[in-house]
Design goal:
The protein is an alpha/beta fold and 214 residues long. It has one domain: PAC-like subunit (Rossmann fold, 3-Layer(aba) Sandwich), CATH 3.40.50.10900. It has five helices and eleven strands. The strands form two sheets. The protein has a nine-stranded mixed β-sheet, sandwiched between helices. A hairpin with a 4-residue loop joins strand 6 and strand 7. Helix 1 crosses helix 5 and helix 2 packs across helix 4.
Length: 214
């Protein structure tokens, strides 16, 4: 494999979705939150992304069968809104800057084919002691202030690393609306508590809390 490629598993009808990204990262908050949302929405995987930018190993399942690391795209739909959920096994090495930008452009190009103009990226932010605080960044001051009004704290520390940050920045250049949700975590292990806090904030933000009876 000498270039990134997308493999379609299904072709669902998707219109103007919100793209929700949650990939492995600090405290694994993004991936855990995305997985919770996939389960909550009974989302279906419909596409996979493979790339030579991913690490040089294969993943072995419980039956001893191997596969390369990948990103996965899921589709879910509420009464009013379609969702694309992006999660996966890994990210390129932090020092491989070109790989991050190329993959993020591939992701946004793919989402735009369905009319996507809104993105929510999810990750973890390091704190010395565990809390349930949610930090937010956005593509506009107005949007960040609105999220702060919902109980989050504006993240003003300077940088968001990896796909969680790059997707948000590239989406803004494209004229998309975008927000980033960061769960406070010590990052010492996969932080289920931080992920659950972000998940609850996410479904409240999307207006899904009452509709699902939570």
């Amino acid at each position: 494999m000498d270039k990134t490629f997308l493999k379609l598993i299904d072709q669902p009808k998707i219109e103007n979705p919100i793209l929700i990204e949650g990939l492995p990262g600090f405290g694994n908050v993004g991936r855990l939150t995305a997985n919770l949302f996939v389960e909550f929405m009974a989302a279906k995987r419909f596409a996979e992304l493979y790339s030579p930018f991913f690490p040089d190993y294969v993943i072995i399942d419980s039956k001893g069968v191997c596969r390369p690391p990948r990103y996965e795209f899921y589709h879910a739909k509420s009464a009013e809104q379609d969702f694309l959920i992006l999660t996966g096994d890994t990210q390129p090495a932090l020092e491989d800057i070109n790989a991050h930008y190329e993959l993020c452009d591939e992701i946004l190009d793919f989402a735009e084919k369905f009319g996507c103009q809104t993105i929510i990226t999810i990750g973890g932010v390091p704190v010395p002691q565990p809390t349930r605080q949610i930090y937010v960044a956005a593509t506009s001051t107005k949007l960040a202030s609105e999220l702060a009004g919902e109980g989050a704290t504006i993240y003003g520390r300077g940088r968001i690393m990896g796909a969680t940050g790059i997707l948000l920045g590239l989406a803004k250049i494209r004229g998309w609306t975008g927000i980033c949700l960061l769960g406070a975590t010590t990052g010492l292990k996969a932080d289920q508590t931080a992920a659950l806090s972000v998940f609850r904030f996410l479904i409240k933000l999307l207006g899904l809390e009452e509709k699902k009876g939570l």
